[in-house]
Each structure stands twice: as C-alpha cells, then as structure tokens.
Amino acid sequence: MNEEKMNQDGYEPINDSSNVQEPMYVETNETDISIEPNQEQEVSQKVEVKPSVFVSGENSNETNTDQSGRINVTQSGEAQNVPIHKGPKLKSVLAVIMAMVLVGSSTFMVGYYQGQINLQDDKIADRVNQILDKQMNEKVYQSVVKYFDENGNPITVGDVNIASIYQNVSHSVVGLTSKLKYFDWFNNERYTEGTGSGVVVKEEDDRYYIVTNFHVVDGATEVVAEIVSDQIVPAQLIGYDSDSDLAVVSIMKKDIPATLVNEIQPIEIGVSKDLQVGEPAIAIGNPLGYNNTVTYGVVSAIDRKLSSDQANEYIQTDAAINPGNSGGALVNKKGELIGINTSKIADTNVEGIGFAIPTDTIMPIVAELIQNGYVSKPYMGIGGVNIDEDTSKLYEIPIGVLVKFIYDDSPALKAGLKEMDVVIGIDDQKVYTMDDLTGILATHEPGDEITVKVIRDGKEKLEIPLTLGDRNKNNPSNK
Asked: Is 229 a catalytic residue?
C-alpha cells in the first residue's frame, strides 16, 4: 500500500519497495491516462472520468478528482493519486507552427530592409567622405599657404597648386547669358545675346546671389545662368550700380536639379587691400562661352585708375582676360576672391593688361544691392561746369564749380542754392572741379548735413547748410 507525503510542491507518491506495482491505465472521455506510481506530472485542467473505470482489468467502485488535478482511484479498497499524461491538442500544435512561420517571415523582411538601408548608408557615406575630403584638402592647402606667409616665405606662382584652387573655386563661378531686345531699321523687334560670367557670393535658404558686371546685364530682358555645362537655370536681376559697373542676380534653388543644388557654394572672400604686386592671381570665367576657363598670372599693379577723370580704382593683372570673362573671379593663392574681372585693354600693340574691381569695393555694394535693390548715393541735385584758371581770369570769377542748373525737388533747391552760384568748398575742403565735389560727397551718406560755400553774383560769399539726399531711392532708372 502506498503512503502519501506532503512536500512544498504538493502531494508526491513515495515508492514502497516491498510492493512493486505494474502501470495502470484509466479510460476517460478525452484520452487514455497512464498511471505510474513512481512519476509525477502536472496537469493544467481537471479530467472527467466516466462512471466505469477499469484499472488493470478490474472494476473499481469509486473515483474522484482532487484540487491538484490528480485522479483518485480506488482499487480493492485502496486509494491512489493518479498523475495524468495528457497529449498535446491540435490547436496548440498549429499555433506553434504559425508562430514559427511568422517569426521566420519577419526575420527575412527585417533582413531585407536592413540590407537596403545598409546599401543606402554606403552611398551616403561615400558622398559625405567626398565632401569631407574636398573640404579637408582646401583647408590643408590654405593652412600651408598661411603658414608660409606668416613665416616670411610667400608662395610664388610656381608654388601655387592651380588644380586644387580650380577644384575649390569652380563650383562658385557660373556663366551668364543676357538676352537683349532691339529694333531693326524697319522697326521689327529683334533679339541678341551677350555672354559673361558671375560669382556666387551668398547663399540663403531658397536662393544663391551672384555678383557680375553691370555691363553684362545692361538692358537685358532675360538673364540665364549656366551652373554646369549645359545646365541652364533662370536668373533674376536684383539690382545694379552703373557707377561701379556691378550688378547682382539670383538663382532659385527650386530651379536647380537636386543632384546639383548642393554642388554650388559661395566663394571665400579675400581682402584686396592686403594684395602685393607680384603675388599670384588666377582668373576663372566664361570667355567666349567656354565655361569655367582658368588662366593665371600675377598682380601687376594695385589701385590702378583707367583714366585720370575716373575715381574707381582697379587691380591690374596679366592673367588672360577675354570677352566673356567679365564678371568672373580673380582669386589669390588661397583661392579667395580678390576681384571681379571687368575689362582689358584691347589693342594689337598691347597684351596681358587686364583689370578687376577689388573685393573691398565690391562687397559693401553687393550687400546694399541685396538689401535694397539699389545703392544709396548722396547727392545735392545740381549740374555744374568747371571754372579753371583761364576762365577765372577771363570772366573775373573764382575757380570752382559753376551751378548751371538745379534739379526739381532736390536738396540744393530746398537749401536755397541758385543757378550761377560758384561752389568753392564743402565744409573745410576746397572744391576746384566736379570731381572734387563728387569725391567729397562720396565720403558722406544720404541724410548727412554739410555746409556748401558759394560765391553769388561774383562777390557775395555764402555758407549754406544742406542735407544730402539719396539719388537712387526714388529713381528707378538709377537702380
């Protein structure tokens, strides 16, 4: 007879070595139940037992099921706890198979997309490395040049890495084409085209700003930019200053193919006042329509005037500048912009004399054009002629500027100047010519108050206070 012993896991059968029993089988309504006194198994649910229970072929009179899930079987007046062997259900088997299929499919799909992501990551990484290499090469080159300059060993033309400079600067220089409208002898509308160059100097969220020469876009009804070979985008004129021969156009990022929009970059701006005669100069532009042509030479002279009566000063260089180079970049040994190529002396007896507008002149004008669309110009509002020494003696009038006419609604008219007044000074500076007068005014800003010294009627000396106006503010023809 078996005894029952309680442990912390519940009832556990203990074998009686003196009475070895054969396995018994119980017939239930679900499955066959194997009864092994030496084995304990957990059952998750109760099992109903039919009224007739057969144990080893003998009829038993009593059966019940206890709380632990075991079936108590009475055999010949003796009770036993019968652990139940329960076979797996079909639903459980199918559920396990389905779970395995889903896990396997998910693993495959995750692996597939992970592979695709890795491929895209490789492409992105390659592109990033290209950009970083390009920037690193540029920084290293500039650092080397700076080191030699600071240690008294300036870079010469033979030392300059032209190819490296070109690679760094070429994405900042574009070709420009202007369409001009005119009328022929029979008053028929005709169009012609002019070509030039431009330099990207500023980037905003939706556009790039390009500086060029005013004469490249003068009178144009349409302007287009060639950002790379055969890739044309429309350009919009922002403003110009005819006095300095500078203009600014813009191109919109939405008009640029996505593959190229990040290739364009504003050029690094150098300081032209630091230039020395004889140092390297590289010109990049669009001569005769040949996009991104590079030539090189040296800075031949600085602060050069093209004529005695002109106030603008230029950089002179022997780097080849040809038609179409106008508006292109003149860069130094570091690849920094030092000037905008504007003209050359065209003569069969002259070679290698070209001129560029210095960046120290360019950048304040460009900033004003971008902000206002025009350049503020202080003015008095008079038209005058020079009275030289001979004229002064002949007519017995002082040397200075004779006021021939006064513009309507001008500062001069409001201040009380009159025609035939002779301007002999502004503040503490003497005035002998119109160049003297305009030169003094150029040092002021619109809104400044000055004192104009005049001789009236050949004898009366007057000092007239005058507030300078803005010549271009309300004059679209000068914008």
From this structure: no
Share of the chain above pLDDT 90, in %: 45
How far CA 186 is from CA of 180, 182, 219, 221, 394, in Å, comes to 18, 11, 21, 21, 51
Outline where 57-212 has alpha helix (H).
90-150, 162-169
The Cα–Cα gap between 439 and 311 comes to: 8
Q: Could you confirm whether 205 is annotated as catalytic?
A: no
pTM over 0.85: no
Q: Say if 170-255 and 272-362 have the same CATH topology.
A: yes
pLDDT band at 159 (very low <50, low <70, confident <90, very high): low
Q: Quick one: 192 exposed, middle or buried, by C-beta within 10 A (0-12, 13-18, 19+)? A: exposed
Positions of E strands within 347-459: 354-358, 378-379, 382-387, 400-406, 422-426, 429-430, 449-456
Choice among 172, 178, 197, 215 that is catalytic: 215
Q: Are 328 and 197 in contact (CB under 8 A)?
A: yes
Distances, alpha carbon 249 to alpha carbons 237, 256, 467, 477, in Å: 4, 15, 33, 17
Cα 318 to Cα 32, 271, 291, 296, 361: the distances in Å are 108, 20, 20, 8, 21
Q: Which of 329, 317, 322, 323 is nearest to 283 (CA)?
A: 329
Q: Catalytic residue among 244, 300, 326, 343, which?
A: 326
Q: What is the dihedral of CA 35, 37, 42, 43, to 10 degrees?
A: 30
Among 21-35, 223-237, 357-371, where is mean pLDDT lowest?
21-35
State how far the Cα of 421 lies from the Cα of 462, in Å rounded to an integer: 10
CATH architecture type of domain 272-362:
Beta Barrel (2.40)
Considering the candidates 245, 318, 421, 436, report the single residue annotated as catalytic: 245
Structure-token match 């500039």, residue found: 142
| CA-wise closest residue to 53 among 35, 20, 28 | 28
Q: Per DSSP, what are the bridge partners of residue 100?
A: none
Cα separation of 265 and 272, whole Å? Answer: 21
CA 323 – CA 321 distance, rounded (Å):
7
- The residues spanned by each domain of the chain are 4-82, 88-153, 170-255, 272-362, 378-478
Q: Where are the beta strands (DSSP E) in 134-245?
A: 173-183, 189-203, 207-213, 220-228, 231-241
* CATH H-level superfamily of 170-255: Trypsin-like serine proteases (2.40.10.10)
Q: What residue has token string 């080893």?
A: 56
Is 245 assigned a catalytic role?
yes
Which residue would you say has higher pLDDT here, 74 or 442? 442
Superfamily name with CATH number, domain 378-478: PDZ domain (2.30.42.10)
